[in-house]
Amino acid sequence: MTVKERELIFTTEVDNQINQRLDTGTGSGSGSGSGSGDGSICATNRGKTENRCLRNYSIATGAAAIPGAISFGIGTLIGMGAATGVFIWCLEDAQNDSEACIANGG
Q: In the chain, pLDDT over 90 holds for what percent of residues?
């Protein structure tokens, strides 16, 4: 199995789990989305964004593990550090977008 095939399987599984979580309402921010000004649509959008951040982080950490076998862990350490930094920034962006949505009557 090639690396690309593994990445595709991994990405597909992560997407399926996130979609299942959103469909069952167990994801964070699973508000009604009625747009009634109570912030529920903002919470729903934030939950979706956070789940995308998690999906991307999972993909990045999986990809970071691949060079670890070649570089004896150094590549993994660098890749994990970068993936974690991007994940934190993504969550901060989701928070900021949610606050702006609520401030605008979301």
A: 25
Q: Residue 31's pLDDT is what?
A: 41
Tell me which long-range contacts 7-12 makes (C-beta under 8 A, separation of at least 24): 7/59, 7/62, 7/63, 10/58, 10/59, 10/62, 11/55, 11/59
**What's the whole-model pTM score?**
0.59
Mean pLDDT in residue range 7-26:
65
pLDDT at 23: 59
Report which residue type is found at 36: S
28 touches 10 (CB < 8 A): no
CA gap 7, 87 in Å, rounded: 19
Rounded to whole angstroms, the Cα distance separating 26 from 20 reads 9
Nearest 5°: phi and psi at 15?
Answer: -60, -45
Alpha-carbon distance 90 to 51, whole Å? Answer: 10
